Amino acid sequence: MFTANKPEAVRQMYTTDESLRIRLETHDRYTVPPINYVRWAINCIHWQGDEKVLDVGCGPGRWYSELIADQPQINYYGLDLYPGMLHNHPAPTVLNISDAQDLPYPDATFDVVMANHLLFHVPDMDKAVTEFQRVLKPGTILMTTTNSLHNMPELQVLMRRAVTLLVPPGTTNIQVPPSHTDLFTLESGTRLLARHFYAVVRYDLPSQLIFPEVDPVMAYLDSTRSVREPELPPGVMWDDVLLIVREQVNRLIEHFGELVINKLSGVLIATDHGDFIRDYLDHEAKTAQNNGH
Questions:
Q1: How confident is the model over 170-190, as pLDDT tens digits?
Q2: How many whole angstroms separate alpha carbon 50 and alpha carbon 53?
Q3: Residues in a beta bridge with 200
Q4: Residue-number span of the structural domain to which 143 is assigned
Q5: Whole-structure pTM over 0.85, yes or no?
Q6: Using one digit for the tens of pLDDT, what is the confidence trace for 220-254?
Q7: DSSP string, 40-73
Q8: Closest by alpha carbon to 228, among 179, 155, 165, 157?
Q9: What pLDDT is attached to residue 1?
Q10: Which residue from 20, 5, 180, 146 is spatially nearest to 84, judged by alpha carbons?
Q11: Which end of the chain has a smaller Cβ tally under 10 Å, C or N?
Q12: From the CA atom positions of the chain, what is the Rg in Å?
C-alpha cells in the first residue's frame, strides 16, 4: 500500500479542508487558460435535470455548488469519511459520514455517482467501485475525475533533484515521493473502470500553472506533506527537500520571470447502458431485432 491510500496519512491530510483548499485555490488562481474545472467536468455528462446524485468524497461541497447552479432540480446527496471536511458544506442536511468502500445506501438508489479526485485515497479501489455499481440504478453512470500520470512533470523533476542532492553520494535507485494522485490516474483509472463497466470514456483537459512567485508553489507542495513525506529515502527530511526546491524555483523565476507547470487532468465516465453509450446500444439492439437475432 502506498502512503497516498494509507488511512492514517490520508486522515492527516483531510482532518480539515485546509490542505484541499490550498490546492484548489492554487489551481483557481494560477491555471492558464483560466477555466472552471468543476463546471467543465459536469458538462461532460448528458444531464436530464432530475437525477439523484451521490457525491462520494464531497468535502466542503465544491461540486454541490456548481451542480445546483447548473442543474437546480437534481436530488443531491454527499458523503465523506472525514467529519472535518464537511464543516463548510452548504447542504449539511443531505450529508453522510461513511466509507466509500461500504456505502450506507440501498441497491439501485442513484442515477449518478461522482467520485472526484478520490479513488487514489481508497485502500481497495475495486471494492469501492463495486459499491458504486451496487448503489447505481441499471443503465446509469459513474463519474470520476483525476490527473494523468503525466500531470505536473516539472514538479517531480524539482523534487528528484532535491532528493538526489540529499541522499548519500553513490546512492542508486533513488526514491522520489510520487504525486498523491498516481494510484488512480486517467490511464490506470480507465483500465480499472473497464473491469467493472461495459464502456468508459475519457475526457482530457490540458492546461498550465504559471507561477510568478515562489510561495504558492511551496504551499501547494507542502499541502501534500502527509502522503509524500513517508515516501522519502531514509535520512532525507521533508523540510530540507522543500528548502532545495524553493532555491530551484527562485532561480527559475529569476531567469524566466515565471515557473510553468504543465497539467493534464480529466474525467472518466463509466456505464453499462447510459449516457454516451446509450444510443449506440439501442441502435445495436434494434439492428439485431430487425435481423431476427
A1: 777 888 888 888 899 999 999
A2: 9
A3: 270
A4: 3-290
A5: yes
A6: 999 999 999 999 998 999 999 999 999 999 999 99
A7: HHHTTS---S--EEEEET-TTSHHHHHHHHH-TT
A8: 179
A9: 46
A10: 20
A11: C
A12: 21
Taking alpha carbons only, the member of 280, 275, 278 closest to residue 114 is: 275
Distance CA 70, CA 175 (A): 44
Share of the chain above pLDDT 70, in %: 98
What is the structure's pLDDT at 9? 84
Report the C-alpha gap between 234 and 216 in whole angstroms.
28
The three cell numbers of residue 113 are 455517482
E-strand ranges in the chain read 31-32, 52-56, 75-80, 95-97, 110-116, 136-147, 199-211, 259-271
186, 120 contact by CB (below 8 A) = no
| pLDDT tens per residue across span 15-37 | 899 999 999 999 999 999 999 99
The distance of Cα 54 from the centroid of its chain, to the nearest Å, equals 16
- Which CATH number is 31's domain given? 3.40.50.150
Say how far apart CA 103 and CA 101 lie, in whole Å: 6
Residue 202 β-bridge partners: 268
Distance CA 155, CA 220 (A): 10
Burial (CB < 10 A; 0-12, 13-18, 19+), residue 1, is exposed
Number of domains forming the structure of the chain = 1
